[in-house]
């Protein structure tokens, strides 16, 4: 597709309106399932169009994303005739990324759907009857914390899970994974989780008493919607291309030969976490119950996701005071945080981890090729953190060459707009309402 702007053909990335206000962000498989702080597909779409049109990348090249999330970059890679490779420390993110970015044989998908749905309504009715008669209780292997679901519906969800496991044996995990995403969506709808929240917050007790969701109705409706979206996606992509999503840490991506090969990517497009998961976007909390019910992951594994993310409590990297010298913007922030006895240690751990990813990306990306970091500025202890400047300065220290920084407003996005950093009732501070797309070229050989 040829990019065009209000004044004609696009000749520069700065000619594009990066806000994409009122754009449909749920087209094709992007609409299979939500995810917090998801990068809108219009960003990688526009970037890939631009770099394909000017010959920086070619059909059949590889796009890499060190923070796959829900697979936005991977989906757009496939739609643009490119291989996709990515990794994430959240196993649920890996599930979504694979489900969204790999086309399915539509005949097999229909057969798997019929197999899954056969007698399912009557079986779910039997589950309800057994529960009401006191003959059925939550199985031990379902590691859901008490008080988050109406128990009758939770048992229905679990029964659908057993049917999906059966479909996996019959048709393979490629197709079962597609159904797991639908079960995940249903799980969030059925739970007591408050709508619109990215962390685990329950609806008030009085609302829980009236919460009586129709499990099969929700599942069946979403199944129909997602099959239509997958059909449209499959009809548009080349199934000879590959998508590889590693359940792995982007800070050590090249250290394991089974993860990402050095010098293997032609372009990188990614949206890193905005900060440590516990205080910004808690991807693990969002994913916990859906992954346990639908994705075959246990409580302990999902509980560790936010601790394993950038800046998380499981970080093993030592602080580096040199970062403050290499990035004057980060140095100024650290001085300000120390002066007011703020969260300087937290800032250091996050940026230290982030810097390690920058170094890994430099190894993975071919020399002179583009990387786009889609970052948002946040606050810590009421001090604004200029993530776009820190990103540029640390990358330039590594040897990247800065190309352009593109500011954009965020018209809609599931992320925290404000918080109460002092935990004082009624006191809130601004967090994120805009992003910057920092474009650099990888270090030359």
Key words describing this protein structure:
single chain; about 450 residues; alpha/beta; 7-stranded mixed sheet; two-stranded antiparallel ribbon; 16 helices; about 15% strand
| Oligomer type | single chain
State the total count of DSSP E strands.
13
How many helix segments? 16
Q: Numbering strands along the chain, what is their spatial order in the largest sheet? A: 5-4-3-6-7-13-10
Which class do the helix and strand fractions yield? alpha/beta
Helix coverage percent of residues? 40-55%
- Largest sheet, strands/sense/barrel: 7 strands, mixed
Name the poorly predicted regions.
Answer: 413-432
Q: Calculate Rg over CA atoms.
A: 22 Å
Mean pLDDT: 90
Tell me, briefly, the overall form: globular
Distance between the termini: 32 Å
Along the chain, the helix and strand elements come as: EEHEHEHHHHHHHEEHHHHHHEEEHEEEE
Q: Strand content of the residues, in percent?
A: 5-15%
